[in-house]
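Data card: per-record layout.
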Amino acid sequence: MTVIEPKGPEVPAKRPRRAHAAELSAFGEPFLWAHGGALAIGIVLIIGFLVLVLWNGIATFWPRPVAVVTLEDGSLVAGEPSRTEPFRPGPELLSSLSETQRQTVAAADGWAERRLYRIGNYDLYNEDFRWIADYAVARVDYPPEMVFVERLEWGPFVGMVQALAVGGETRTAASLRPGELQSELAKAQDRWQRIRHIERSLIGAVNHEMERERLAVRRAILDHGAGSPAALAAQAAAERRMKPLEERYQALAAEARAIKDADAAVTITLADVGGRDKTMPLSQVVRIYAANDLSLIEKLGVYVSRWWEFLSEEPREANTEGGVFPAIFGTFAMTLLMVIVVAPFGVITALYLREYAKQGRLVSIVRISVNNLAGVPSIVYGVFGLGFFAYILGGSIDDLFYPERLPSPTFGTGGLLWASLTLALLTVPVVIVATEEALAAVPRSMREGSLACGASKWQTIRNIVLPRAMPGILTGLILAMARGAGEVAPLMLVGVVKLAPELPIDGYFPYVHLERSFMHLGFHIYDVGFQSRNSEAGKPMVFVTTLLLIGLVAAMNATAIVIRNRLKRKFAVGHF
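The structure for this 576-residue chain is written out next.
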């Protein structure tokens, strides 16, 4: 009798490590993990960047308290506390410290902390910010009487209200009724707005009419000669029309002077923490508030008013304060005009290459050239735009249609039109490639069915191919829009400027002035961050303008994406 012994579970033979690694490579596991890790890192970086911009941008306009710092030597410094950082005092600085301060630094292994304060009062101190080391601070207070004053010039003023003079009557801060200062400030700002309206709008309109008469006389001289009857008649007619214009100019100038005289009688006297006085017209004050005595509702009011000023007003103080409305308008107008130009050229080119051109070596060379154009540095396009569009094309337009304005160029210099055309050249390869891919994705059977029903080739393209390729075409336009809105280098050569309060649209014929220079949010960020006299003063504006540019591009892209998705649903075809 055979006895069968029970067997334990079979243990699989161990595979060699090389075989296991080869099996993983065969299934692509290492590459899958590498791709997933790279995607995760990219997402984290993008989210981190957006969070950084969002946090700093949103917090920029929140009113901060004003600290009064008493130093150990008895001097006072007042300002908004900002960031802190560690630093190592050098030998010269250590030698100037007291024994107690040197012991404090030595106890921290030679390191110390310092805090940055926005002290304002640039017209008094010739600086906006000041570092104060912690070892030099004896006491920090937040007195309720400290005010933060935003001005049209010289930046903010940090101090206390001493007196208010209205119509020859001077009242001290203690004798002012509640709300009286804000009421007088609102009246002063109304006077300033009236002066600005007279000088910019009303007198500007008169100057525009006078300039038009001068140009008409110069045009007649160029066409008929200086002593010709036609030139003399044009000059006589211009003189007759200029007389009421000059009278109107004098009347408006007198009205503006009268308002300025009344405005000069309303002044405010401020004092810094050290007792130095500063008297200025109240109309030069943009906003004034007690920084250490604000309720939550009042803080929200200051916060909202600053945002509204930022979105609706012009910049001031070398673009580090005020608003960016001209830059918002310029960015939107340039991007819209670029899309209007690039869409037909890109789509028509792609249609010809995909649907009409005979495929061969020449078409392949054209496609390679288009793909290579997408990699050309943007500054090269700026040089081309300046040379071809501004100097050659714009100069020819000036010679033909605006000779009376020469040597001052009209179209022969950078402007909104040339900037838009330059960026259209920059982004047209993206639209061409995306459109070709979208056209190729339309099934050939749909083309053949349309042709079999008797439709012509163009009818097939217009009614069958283009509607179904439109989502892909819009994808290319979205990419082009995003790139064009963020480009700065070519714009610096073909039209963007630091400050252009005149918008390309106004009430003067032809109402849309594409030859004018314009402001751009991207260039505004560069100018504030790298060209301002004080980088610390411009840093908050850099973050908030970056946030605004991202939001503007996202809004334009979201609009295009919604249209694209609707087209996708409209022409979706299901297969069962």
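Known properties of this structure: The chain is about 60% helix and 15% strand. Residues 215 and 405 are 7 Å apart (CA to CA).

See the next section for split statistics.
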